[in-house]
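Posted in: Protein Modeling Q&A

I'm a second-year student putting together a small comparison for a lab meeting, and my supervisor asked me to include a predicted structure for ABC-type glycerol-3-phosphate transport system, substrate-binding protein. I've never done this before, so apologies if this is the wrong subforum. The sequence is pasted below exactly as I got it from our records. If anyone can share the structure token output, I'd also love a short note on what stands out.
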Amino acid sequence: MRRKIVAILLVLVLVCASLIGCNKDSKETKSTTAKSGEDATKKDKDKNIKMGRYVEEKVQLPELSTNENVFKMIQNKNKQIEVYTREEKNSSIHFYSYVQKEPGKWEKSTPTWLNDGKVNNNSVSIESILLGKDGNYYALYLSYAGNTQKAIVIKATDETKESTMINIPYLNQKIKVGQQSFYPYIRKMEVMKNGNFILDDGFKENKLLVFSKDGKKLEDISIGGEQHLASFDNDVISIKEDNSGFSFFNTDTKKVDKTIDYKVTTSDMFESMNLVYAFKEDGTLFICDNKGIERLQKDGTLWETVVDGQLNSMSMPSLGIDNLIVSDNSGEEFYVSYYSDNNDIQLMHYTFDKNISSVPQKEINVYSLKENKTIRQSVALYQAKNLDVRVNYVVGMGEEEGNSSDYIRALNTELLAGNGADVLVLDGLPMDSYIEKGVLSDLSDIIKPMEEKNGILTNISKAFYKDNKIYCMPTRFTVPILLGSKEVINVSDSTEHIVKYINDTQKIYGPTMTYAQLICDNLALYSDEFMSDKGVDKTLLTKFLTNLKVIADNTKATEFDESGNSRKASKEPYFDINNLFMCDKYGFLDKDYETALLRHDSLTMFNFTMGMSKNRKGITYDTINNQFVPIGEIGLNAASKNKEIAKDFIKIILSSDVQDTNTFDGLPVIQSSLDKEKESMLKAKGTIGISSRGGKEFSFGTASESEINGFMQKIKELSKPMQVNQIINNMILENALPYFTGKNNVNQAVDIIIQKVNTYLEE
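Accepted answer (user: helix_wrangler)
Welcome! Here is the predicted structure, written out as tokens:
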């Protein structure tokens, strides 16, 4: 019996051991299977990721001497990238060319055809150099003599040969422009395969001129404005008059062969069509603009996106696209040359990388109510440095103008529901409400280290701290500067003091403007006279509007401006922070009124301020209550699921890489960038001429270093940001206007405003 029990126990032990062993094996198998499944899933997922896209690389240009500058890049006869430079030394001009033999290595030469005495002198300026489709080199230059300029074209069969002048009789014929006569102002040129010339004359608006190779005038082509020139075979491509696409004009038949639809974009910075085009030898057309590079096969009708411009420099508002070169040695490659606001040339190379995903696998969203150039610049720069991240920049109102209230309400609903973009540009948005409701995250871990290391202007950043936390930081700022006597500047700290000055002196305080402009400007400057965190004070609002009516009567404000609009930018008046302080200033020089308010978006604007102050006796300048206009106020959505990427993006915006670039939407917020802008300003010596409203001519030089330092000290003293709630300001504007036009009294206007503001705040 005992043996039986022992046997049973042994069996049980074995069974248990076996079961344990089986369970162990099962678990290991299950674990292994799970791991294999994960790998398989990952592999399947990886298989589903489409690979390959074009990436951007900056080309290191040749090292140049001190007085040598790049002015043109072309593809030469040997299909190599060639850079032309101009050097001024000891009152003589020399031209050089550099050929890229391999990446980063350039071979320098002195092209005979540009140094044979025709163009290498101080009285000429080269406008264009190109390799014609007929295989010859051409240069278009302007020759200056006294007050006249004349376009001349030279040709060379080889760069080592001397040039010959091309006789185009049209260039020797003066054109009547107003009361004066000028030679044609030829800015661009293209030479076709059959030797025909295509010229762009600045005096012939929306026209291209076609000449035969012996200089005979053939035809005019109607176009949509100043643009790049390109041709294939005997067709010249041009943007249509309505900017809706391209037309192919055959210079032999003198007819349009075909038209292609395309949405043409313009450059915000350079106010021109910011696109170029090029053909491959097989007739494939490539377009390069802010959106990227697109391809159209010969005889095709559908555009194909080859390079996404949102992921590289093409979408940077600070760069103008100068030229596109298509290389087809081993698969399509692209070279794009760019010019910046100071005419510096950059060259980028775009090659296909099959080892990265065609679309970045990480992404963040950035939202702003209106387009912001600094944000757009930052998006392009960040994506060029982070190939695995896509930054989707969403502009709520797009190119629309008008009241933003509906857009803001829709955004508020989204944010309060825990959704919305990762990074918010808070200009005009109810920032205090967002902070109170926990919509925004504290940015202290970004801003405080940057205050110490990057030299962020602490007087600007400190203005946004609340309880030792910072939820918002401007990326730029502008400074309203008031010109006037010391007396009038001293009384401009409040509407009450301005009214007292008007009553005491009977002088005209400022320029005539529309009621809407007057209300908007003064809301921005003095809204704290009646508005606080608790809302709008009825008694103080009544006093504010009453004071404003006195100022309006004194300055002869009107309902409509000279164009018939109640606000310059729109038929419907609305509050827009970008349209503040934009009224007439030139009557100030005629002593028509006592103050002029100037908006300083860049340091160079100070030249204008100093010039105006020097041309009227007893005039000085100052800020109003140390106020500044914050631009591009960025905040981090507390509900963001991509906070680390979003923070990295914010760091880029506030870095010198972005702040050093002048996007003309405000002053930089870091000291080193401000100092660089000052250095550039001191180098750009010259004379500025302006006319007063009465027709008087005034001229002045650039500001001195001590004068600039004085203005920079004013910048360091700024402490009060203009906090704008566009919904409330639009309510005040809309319902105050009937009081100014005589349709309501002040009490009626105030009652309506208070009721609407309270309803909004209760929401």
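A couple of things worth pointing out for your meeting: The CA atoms of residues 118 and 163 lie 8 Å apart. The two ends are 87 Å apart (CA to CA).
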